[in-house]
Amino acid sequence: METLHCDVAIIGGGPAGCSAAIYTARADLDTVIIDKDPHAGALGMAHIIANYPGMGNDITGMELLESMRRHAGSFGARFMKQKVNGIDVRNPEKTVFTTSGTMFKAKALILATGSMGKSRELPGEKELLGAGVSYCATCDAAFYRQKVVAVAGRTREAVEEALVLSRFASKVYLFCPTASLTAPPEDIHMLQEQKNIEVFYSRRLDAINGGKFVESVTLGAPEEVVAVDGVFLYLTGSAPVLDFTGGQLDVCQSGCLQVDKDFMTSVPGVFAAGDILCKEVKQAVIVASEGCRAALQVDKFLRGRDRARSDYQ
What we know:
The structure is a single chain. The chain folds into two domains: 3-117 and 239-303, 3-Layer(bba) Sandwich (FAD/NAD(P)-binding domain), CATH 3.50.50.60; 133-234, 3-Layer(bba) Sandwich (FAD/NAD(P)-binding domain), CATH 3.50.50.60. The longest helix is centred in the last third of the chain and has 20 residues, at 284-303. It has helices at residues 15-26, 42-45, 61-74, 137-140, 156-166, 185-193, 284-303, and strands at residues 3-11, 31-34, 78-80, 84-88, 94-98, 103-111, 133-134, 148-153, 171-176, 197-201, 204-210, 214-220, 224-227, 230-234, 270-272. It is of the alpha/beta class. The chain is globular, with a radius of gyration of 20 Å. The strands form three sheets. Strands 1, 2, 3, 4, 5, 6 and 15 form a seven-stranded mixed beta sheet that branches. A five-stranded parallel beta sheet has the order 7-14-8-9-10, with helices on one face. A hairpin with a 3-residue loop joins strand 11 and strand 12 (214-220). It comes from Prosthecochloris aestuarii (strain DSM 271 / SK 413).
């Protein structure tokens, strides 16, 4: 198991995370951005961005995000493609756990995972978790050798995980809740080349059925029951992505992460920015500014300063 140490670990590589990384890395803080997939966030999925200052009116969300990532990288920030499944913030040095087994140890954390978390739990999901319900094909695919599995989702992550499963399962059903997948064309092409993957568009998963183990899934519109041995969920909604925090941080009544005026959470050394926080207006320029402000507060925290230092010359 590999352990990587850094000054600042940023979980989430969207506009808030990238903006924060620009400022922490420029402040000479060793910065790591842990992001499972840039295409999986709200900005990466946006077809056209017409109102981000200085970028014109015909840039895609992914192009804007790639520009942000290059900018952060130019100051030394490192991007790690990892899926975070837990954190431990009980000690001064914070720990980030990933599904690959790699651990990150950081003096400060910035949480910028956005608000595309699953808004509702499916009937049977909680009861059959670990008994056929999974959120990580990379972790569990080998248990489904020569079996039939379902994947639910529309993102690049869902496509990639379906491809992983196709190497083990005899049949993979990919149920996309929308009319199209939000994955790059090359990934969709790879998906179409796999003979044991079947994609169904505009098919929503309504329930997961079974006694001790998963036996089938129920689809809606029209209703249909499909026999499967396992279900891998990569569904998105509009809830703050907080599942990896394990209840260690205070949240507001609305379910968003609670922070003070300095963007610090209820645990010293853990900061947050972006759509993981409660706000009425969700725009890339707003969350980018929050990433900047959170980063300046991290610099203040780690340097032991009385106030944040302005970053302009």
